[in-house]
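Students often ask why we bother encoding 3D structure as a string. The short answer is that it lets us treat folding as translation between two languages. Here is a chain of 99 residues written in the first language.
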Amino acid sequence: MDEHLHEHHEHLHQHTNTKDVLNRLSRAIGHLESVKRMVEDGRDCSDVLIQLAAVRAALGSTSRIILKDHLEHCIVHAVESNDQTAIEELEHAIDKLIQ
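And here it is in the second language, the structure alphabet:
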């Protein structure tokens, strides 16, 4: 489990899924590199779009893991300590994520 202090909040955060997140990000990077090569090689647009969908799916699943971890640890702590700023920051992050 990795731990760090949040920049804006003085509570210790434990990343319970760091290895899984890093593995998923590596897969997404691999898919994106493949997309780049496909475009460079002039591959069919449909194939490129399918590969881009794989990138988006990989990032979406990674985002869900990070969000779940954040809710279970940081936001629980924020609610317990009446930290409205942390909740507002989560709302802002979710808005950015689902745009």
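Translate back mentally: The domain at 16-97 is CATH 1.20.58.1000 (Methane Monooxygenase Hydroxylase; Chain G, domain 1). Keep this in mind for the problem set.
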